[in-house]
Amino acid sequence: MDRRDFLMRAAALPLAAQGSLAALVSGAHAQGTWPERNITFVVPFPAGGQADLAARPVAAALEKILGRPVVVENRAGGAGGAVGNAAVARAAPDGYTQLVTLSSLAVLPEADRLFGRTPAYEVSQFTPVARILADPTLLAVPASAPWKTLKDFVEDAKARPGQIPYGSSGPYGTLHIAMEMFAAAAGIKLLHVPFRGAAPALTALLSGTVQALASAPGVLKAQVDDGKLRVLANWGAERIPSFPDLPTFKELGYPDVEFYIWAGLFTPKGVPDAVMTKLRDGMRQAMKSPEVIKTFEAAGSPPAYQDQAEFTRFFEADSARLIAAVKKIGKVE
């Protein structure tokens, strides 16, 4: 059938069928030429945290690969990242709006249900694309604090229940869950002070507004190297190269205290296969970029890339573990 016959037959179709055909042709064209405009990486936290650290080098590399600007947009409305997560869940599944977020993506809807609230979004509204970073969390305190070891910290917390303030990125966010895991295992009560993201929480720790913080190595390293902060323990299963002398919670007698801050790329569910293939290929190349690798390693947070299939399996397993932890912790403010 030539072009003239195709157009004549299309014109003879009912209007509704013509509309469906036009949408089909338009969709196929969009998939074949994507991207035709700017791509947005929504980071649901303020600049300076783990998700932001993951997004910016990758966006710069992906921009060169895809030939279109990749803009990082910090949409920090508090609620542990729920506001930005929900915004992407509602976005059109066309590949132009994507989400770089943390493990709290799976936790926050469960926390809402725990309190009888309607979740702002559901995990089923997203498709995992790639994991970017995956770091064990570290417990940091001001360098001026009296605690030289985790034992010192626990003994003081037991002597003064509810009086040592710690910061977080919001209720049931990654930093909150990590600290409550530790507090429950140690049998201590701390004072939770939520902020709108990890970066404001770090600022509060540096200023002395709070006295403890769970955070990623890449976020803490410069401050520890400058002598402003001290780290007491590592939530990982083993010690890490950027802090080789820092013991794990397991080493210190807390075998069930293990937590990782990972960052990954997600799209709204329903992105066309052709667009997803281009995006996955672009991410694979971006994560091999020397500039990206150098940036992450310099920050003490080496790349932890996983492609879609592997990341999906990781995300499902990690989410199940974290949801079980939330249910065990129960309602906390």
UniProtKB/TrEMBL annotation:
InterPro entries: BUG, Bug_dom1, TAT_signal. Signal peptide: none annotated. Gene3D superfamilies: Bordetella uptake gene, domain 1, Periplasmic binding protein-like II. Belongs to the UPF0065 (bug) family. This is Tat pathway signal protein. It comes from Pseudorhodoplanes sinuspersici. The lineage of its organism: Bacteria, Pseudomonadati, Pseudomonadota, Alphaproteobacteria, Hyphomicrobiales.
